[in-house]
Design a protein that fits this description.
Lyase, Ornithine Decarboxylase, Chain A, domain 1, TIM Barrel, 20 strands, polyamine biosynthesis, 13 helices, alpha/beta, lyase, 30% helix, globular, EC 4.1.1.17
C-alpha cells in the first residue's frame, strides 16, 4: 500500500486496512511533515453510520447537524447518500445548497435568527425553521410570513456532554401552549414541535418524556386549528467507536409507536456526532519533553510532553464539548515497561493549553514519537483556530474499495456522475495492494 499525503484526493484502498496502518504508511515514509498534526478521515465509517441509522430507526429522517463538522467531504458524502441537513446560519445553508441539496431537505434549526438570516432563508427557499419565543414570531411575521414553523420546547437530559436548555427552548407545559396561540393570532403556519435533549446524551429515557410533551402539544395545536405534521427529536446520539445507538433507538421506536403511530407524522432528527465522531483520528507528534525531578532524591517523578495540537485547535472539544480524550501511542511499548505520571500540553504559549493531566504513560516516550487520538470528528475542526501561529491539521481521506463500490450503488442516479467524477473538488486515486 502506498498512501500519499494529498489533501486534494480521496484514496480508494484495494485492501482491508485500518487507520493505524495508514498512519504508519504516512509517518514511516516521510510523506508528511511530522511537525504538523493531521487527521485520517475514514469515509466508510460515515457510510456505515448512515446504514446503522436507517436499519435501527427507519422512520426517523436524519438531518445532519452541520455545525458538528462541516468538512466538505463529510457534507458531500451525506448529501450524495440522500441525508437531509440541520443548518444554523446563512453560511451553513449556502454550503449545503452548493452541493445540490434541495432547500426542502434543510431545517433552519436556530430558534434565534438575525433579520438578514431570515430574509436569506426566504430568498433561497428554506421554509422550515424553529422558534421558541413570541419576539421571534413577530420577527418572522414581518420578514417571512409564509415560513413553516417548528416550535422548540425544552426537555433536557440529566446526563449530557453539553446542555442546551439554558439557551434554547420554551417550557412545554406553560410557555408552549401560549406560543401556539400567539402564532395562531398572527396567522403563522406552525407545522411541528421539536426538542433537543442535549449534545452527547447519556439519559436515553428522556426521549420518551419529550415525545410525550410533543403529543400533548399536537393535541393543543389541533384545538387551535393547526394540523401538525413534524416531530423533530433533535440530537444527542452517541458516535464514538465504542458506543452504539441500539439502546436509544429501541426507546425512540417504542415511544413513537406509543405517541405517534400515525404514519402521516414526519419524524426527523438532528444527529451530529453520531455520524462523524469515530470517522476522524487525530495524529500528533511530541516536539518537546520536560522531566520534573524530586528535589530530595533527584529522581524523575513526572514528565510533561508538548505536542503539535492543542485546545485552541482540535482539542477545543475539551473546553466546549466536555470531551474526554484518550491518547494512544503509535510506537509499540511493552506492557511491563515503567510508566510515569504524564501531562500533555499543546503547542501554544498559554498555560490553559493543557490536554491530559497525570496520565500513566511509558517513561520512554521521546521527541518525535507519535500520539494519536480516536473519536475526534465531532466539534473539533469547525471550532479550531490558528492561535499563536500554529497551523491547523490537514485531513487525509480514504475509503476501502468494497465500501466505495457500495457507496456508489447507494447514491441516487442524479448525483452519481458528479460523485464519481468530481467529488467536491477531490480527485479519486486508487491505492493498490502492490504499490
Amino acid at each position: 500500500m502506498k498512501f500519499s499525503a494529498n489533501e486534494d484526493c480521496i484514496q480508494v484502498i484495494d485492501e482491508t486496512t485500518n487507520v493505524v496502518n495508514i498512519i504508519n504508511e504516512l509517518t514511516m515514509h516521510g510523506t508528511t511533515n511530522n511537525e504538523d498534526p493531521f487527521y485520517i478521515f475514514d469515509i466508510g465509517d460515515v457510510v456505515k453510520k448512515h446504514q446503522s441509522w436507517i436499519e435501527r430507526m427507519p422512520r426517523v429522517i436524519p438531518h445532519y447537524a452541520v455545525k458538528c463538522n462541516d468538512n466538505d467531504v463529510v457534507l458531500a458524502t451525506l448529501a450524495a447518500l440522500g441525508t437531509s441537513f440541520d443548518c444554523a446560519s446563512k453560511v451553513e445553508i449556502s454550503k449545503v445548497l452548493s452541493l445540490g441539496v434541495q432547500p426542502e431537505r434543510i431545517i433552519y434549526a436556530n430558534p434565534c435568527k438575525s433579520k438578514s438570516s431570515i430574509i436569506y432563508a426566504r430568498e433561497v427557499g428554506v421554509k422550515t425553521m424553529t422558534f421558541d419565543c413570541d419576539i421571534e414570531l413577530q420577527k418572522i411575521k414581518k420578514l417571512f410570513p409564509d415560513a413553516n414553523l417548528v416550535l422548540r420546547i425544552r426537555c433536557e437530559a440529566e446526563i449530557a456532554q453539553c446542555a442546551l436548555g439554558k439557551k434554547f427552548g420554551c417550557d412545554p407545559v406553560i410557555e408552549a401552549p401560549k406560543l401556539l396561540k400567539t402564532a395562531r393570532s398572527l396567522n403563522l403556519n406552525v407545522v411541528g414541535i421539536s426538542f433537543h435533549v442535549g449534545s452527547g446524551c447519556a439519559d436515553f429515557p428522556i426521549y420518551r418524556k419529550a415525545l410525550g410533551f410533543c403529543k400533548v402539544l399536537f393535541m393543543k395545536a389541533e384545538e387551535l386549528g393547526y394540523n401538525l405534521t413534524i416531530v423533530d427529536i433533535g440530537g444527542g446520539f452517541p458516535g464514538d467507536n465504542d458506543k452504539s445507538i441500539d439502546e436509544v433507538s429501541i426507546i425512540i421506536n417504542q415511544s413513537l409507536e406509543e405517541y405517534f403511530p400515525e404514519k402521516h407524522v414526519r419524524v426527523i432528527a438532528e444527529p451530529g456526532r453520531f455520524y462523524v465522531a469515530s470517522a476522524f483520528t487525530l495524529i500528533t507528534n511530541v516536539h518537546s519533553k520536560k522531566n520534573i525531578y524530586n528535589p530530595l532524591s533527584d529522581e524523575i517523578e513526572s514528565t510533561m510532553l508538548y505536542i503539535n495540537d492543542g485546545v485552541y485547535a482540535s482539542f477545543n472539544c475539551l473546553l466546549y464539548d466536555h470531551q474526554i480524550v484518550k491518547p494512544k501511542l503509535l510506537k509499540d511499548h511493552s506492557e511491563t515497561e515503567k510508566t510515569i505520571k504524564t501531562t500533555i500540553f499543546g503547542p501554544t504559549c498559554d498555560a490553559l493549553d493543557e490536554i491530559i493531566v497525570g496520565a500513566n504513560m511509558p517513561e520512554s516516550i521521546d521527541l518525535g514519537d507519535f500520539i494519536y487520538f480516536e473519536n475526534m470528528g465531532a466539534y473539533t475542526l469547525p471550532v479550531a483556530s490558528p492561535f499563536n501561529g500554529f497551523p491547523l491539521p490537514k485531513v487525509y481521506h480514504f475509503i476501502e474499495r468494497d465500501m466505495w463500490q457500495m457507496v456508489r450503488s447507494m447514491i441516487p442516479v442524479e448525483a452519481n456522475d458528479r460523485f464519481i467524477e468530481d467529488f467536491i473538488g477531490k480527485t479519486i486515486e486508487i491505492v493498490s495492494t502492490t504499490a
